[in-house]
Every structure is written in structure tokens, then in C-alpha cells.
Amino acid sequence: MYEDEDLLPLSALQHLAFCPRQCALIHLESAWTENRLTAEGRLLHDRVHAQGKASRGDVRLAYGLFIRSMELGLIGKADLVEFHRVAATTKTAQQCASTGGVPIPGVAGRWQPMPVEYKRGRPKRDHCDEVQLCAQAFCLEEMLAVSIPDAALYYGKEHRRCGVVLDESLRAEALRVIQRLHELTRRGRTPPPVYRREKCERCSLLDLCLPRAARERHSAQQYLATEIAALEHKSP
Questions:
Q1: Model confidence at 96, in pLDDT bands (50, 70, 90)?
Q2: 225: pLDDT confidence band, cut at 50, 70 and 90?
Q3: Spans of all domains in the chain
Q4: What 3-state DSSP class applies to 156?
Q5: Residues paired with 32 in a beta bridge
Q6: CA–CA distance from 26 to each of 30, 68, 197 (Å)?
Q7: Which of 79, 95, 90 is CA-nearest to residue 146?
Q8: Coil, helix or strand at residue 76
Q9: Rounded to whole angstroms, how far apart are CA atoms 108 and 10?
Q10: 90 falls in which pLDDT band (50, 70, 90)?
């Protein structure tokens, strides 16, 4: 179990899964610059969190819910946790606690929680959003002693909601990223830059990271090494 001072932000998982250097610059070096994309994302989250609580039929909505996992060493805020009413069954109390939802104080019945994460853009090719979402489910499962099989991502650019199955493959991937985050934090060293056009050109930290400059230095070193090797080969 982790201590309170060792808890790491859930948002760092998305940063790490996207780019380890970006994660280190933000969470180890406290480096941050904002561009249009990050500003739009921040405003989207602010609007979602400001909604508080709501009810829509058999669904209770809790916006901006603080969550944490002492077992995994994570803390953060879920954009939205939906609590869906569970149909009454003859399950035992122990079975209900694990698979049949949880009670809500002052409200009859049992309710199945499901985290929903809001993202400004479109679905990504990698799983960085899904990893962050799965980690939110880990926190809720620990806090509420309940199993959460499903979650969702809402993408503002497309006004589209995508269901996410929290299967064993995604859970294993999320656990690996969580472990890497704690290792990165313990080492306290920022990884060297690696230029990837599809990621770097839309990163707000591009001018701080300077990945292209690192690539150019590497190319120059390769050039010098090649020329030296050629001269050595020609010498008698």
C-alpha cells in the first residue's frame, strides 16, 4: 500500500502512454506550455466538472468525482461516474458487493458505477486514453469494492461516445503503464527526446522538448562516424 505523499496523478498515465518524455517534462520538471488544443481540453474538463450531480431516470451522474487507489498509488478526478440502477435479484450480499452494484446513501436500490472520460479531440490510434480510463476503474473498484466491466470515452471533436470493455488485455496494459510511471518517478530522470511527427507536431511541449534538434545532432554524429570510418578504411 502506498502512502498519501506517494500517490501519483491519474493524468500522468495518459501522458506516459502517449510519450514518456512528455510525462517526465510535465510531472518531474513541472514544465508546461499551453496551446489551442490543451486550452480547449482544459475548458472542456472545467465545464464537465462544474455540473456536479444529476439524475436521469435510472442513472445517477457524479461529475468531477475525486478518486484514488492506495494499492496502485494513484489519485485524481474522474470527469464523470455514472451509477446505473441494478435490477433487483436474489443474489447474496457478498455477490452484490462484487458484481451487483453498490448502495447510494439516501437512495433505494443498488447502482453499478461506470467511469466516463471526456477528451477534446478524436479517438487515437494507441490506447493512452483507454489506459487512463482503466486506471480510473481500478480506483473505483478499490474504493467501492465492486467489479466494473465497462467504461466509456466521450470525444468532443466528434460529439461521440465510445464504449470501452475493461477486459484482461487492457487491464494488464494499464497495470504495466502504472508500474512504469512509478519507476519513472523513482528514477527522477527525463528520457531523451525521440522525434515522431504524428505525436510531436501536436504536442504543446514541442518547443521545450526540441526532439528535432536531438535528431539532427544524432544525424551529424552518424555522418562524422561514417566519414571517419571511410578515412580509416582508405588509409594504408
A1: very low
A2: low
A3: 4-191, 193-236
A4: coil
A5: none
A6: 5, 20, 20
A7: 95
A8: strand
A9: 32
A10: very low
Give the β-pairing of 8-9 and 53-56: unpaired
3-class SS of residue 192: coil
Assess contact for 153 and 138: CB atoms under 8 A: no
Residue 191 is placed in which grid cell?
Answer: 528520457
Kindly report the number of other CB atoms within 10 A of residue 99's CB atom: 15
- CATH number belonging to the domain at 4-191, selected among 3.90.320.10, 2.60.40.420, 1.10.580.10, 1.10.287.3510: 3.90.320.10
Kindly state the cell numbers that stand for 208. 521545450
Q: Cβ contacts of residue 59 below 8 Å, gap of 6+?
A: 82, 83, 84, 85
What's the rounded mean pLDDT across residues 120-141?
92
* pLDDT tens by residue, 162-220: 999 999 999 999 999 999 999 999 999 999 988 888 888 888 888 888 888 765 555 55
Give the total residue count for the chain: 236
What CA–CA distances, in Å, run from 28 to 21, 39, 133? 10, 21, 22
Cell of 90: 436474489
The model's pTM is 0.79
